[in-house]
Amino acid sequence: MIDLRTEYLGLKLDNPMVPSSSPLTRELDTVKQLEDAGASAVILPSLFEEAVEKEQKQLERYVHFQALGHYEAESYQPMPEDYSSELDNYLEHITEVKKHIDIPVIASLNGISRTGWIEYGKEMQEAGADALELNVYYIATDPRKSSEDIEALYLELLSDLLSHVSIPVAMKLSSQFSSLPNMVQKLQQAGAQGVVLFNRFYQPDINLETLEINPELQLSDPSEALLRIRWIALLRNWTQMSIAATGGLHHADEILKALLAGADVTYLCSVLLQKGPAYLSTLKEQIIAWMEEKEYESVVQMKGSVSQACAIDPSAYEHSNYYLALSNYRSKMNNA
Ligand SMILES: Cc1cc2nc3c(=O)[nH]c(=O)nc-3n(C[C@H](O)[C@H](O)[C@H](O)COP(=O)(O)O)c2cc1C
Questions:
Q1: Among 221, 265, 213, 216, CA closest to 241
Q2: Which of 95, 148, 203, 236 sits between 20 and 30 A of 78, alpha carbons compared?
Q3: What span, in angstroms and rounded, lies between the C-alpha atoms of 262 and 93?
Q4: In this structure, how many other beta carbons lie within 10 angstroms of the beta carbon of residue 2?
């Protein structure tokens, strides 16, 4: 009997398959389907700083017009009677999900500025979240800001959040740091219990007809997994934090490779949006079949067994292979 259990952020999980933030974890019904199909935990969609700020501005306007008595003002929009805020809705979702499922529930905060929104982490904890994910979706566009400035921002946000909560916190990161191992080490020192590698940045596209810029959300494809697998393999022996792999995990193959590289859990999003929650049980069967064939007894035994420190050729994860990869391509062409 293969033992699929793993541990993530101190949470004991039945297996490493975790549906990540997406519309599937926004609805209680689909969360239940995910649990039934074998999810070991769920990450709820993020509470967005942007949405919270927008709402706060609306509220301020409302209070302002109330005070002036300008009910007829053109831009005045009455608040609906049954109004509940983004935060209220989010907290209610945590409570509902916790009431109906047995697996751990991880809430998520998305934003960058050091304003009051980060305090919402405390309310998420009180609503029952087992852990928090801090998703800093940040594109550095200001040339006056150095990489140190940006890293400091991440660390300050993390410290702020940690000062409000006692549940574990993981940081969802982009791959774009000058020295990712250094950044990961700083996050560990600052108290993070896990890193989620990597955020996907959605690329705006130019519409050639209208010349407008459209935000394009495209689902991932499996080729994106290799970047994650490489970095997890490189980082595994440098950090004691939990590592989650996210991005391009579509088949049992990518999930197995991420675990072999050293991930504690594997997040699934695009593939579940395409194939539905039930696909988790197919993935589970395929993972077990491969482990049986290769005589692995447990996920714990398998985790990190092909990380850089354990790989047959550790340099294969590093630059030294760049030249070899290019040369091999040339020699393949010559032999064709
Ligand atoms: C429609 C959609 C909504 C998402 N919403 C969130 C979100 O609210 N917060 C977040 O951190 N990531 C969000 N993500 C990112 C996913 O959780 C995941 O990290 C990313 O898509 C990479 O995994 P994949 O290749 O399995 O899709 C979203 C992705 C999609 C496609």
A1: 265
A2: 95
A3: 32
A4: 17
Ligand 1 neighbourhood includes 270 CB (under 6 angstroms): yes
- Ligand 1 centroid from CA 96, angstroms: 21
Q: How confident is the model at residue 257 (pLDDT cuts 50, 70, 90)?
A: very high
Residue 278 dihedral angles phi and psi, to the nearest 5°: -60, -20
Give the separation between CA 294 and CA 290, rounded to whole angstroms: 6
Pairing of strands 105-110, 131-135: parallel
pLDDT in tens, 264-290: 999 999 999 999 999 999 999 999 999
**Distance from residue 324's CA to the centre of ligand 1 (Å):** 34
Residue 21 CA: which ligand 1 atom is closest?
17
Q: What is the CATH number of domain 6-304?
A: 3.20.20.70
Contact 183, 151 (CB under 8 A): yes
* Atom number of ligand 1 nearest to Cα 273: 31
Q: Is residue 20 in contact with ligand 1, taking CB distance under 6 Å?
A: yes
Q: Out of 20, 257, 279, give the residue to mutate to test ligand 1, the one with the largest number of ligand atoms within 8 Å of its CB.
A: 20
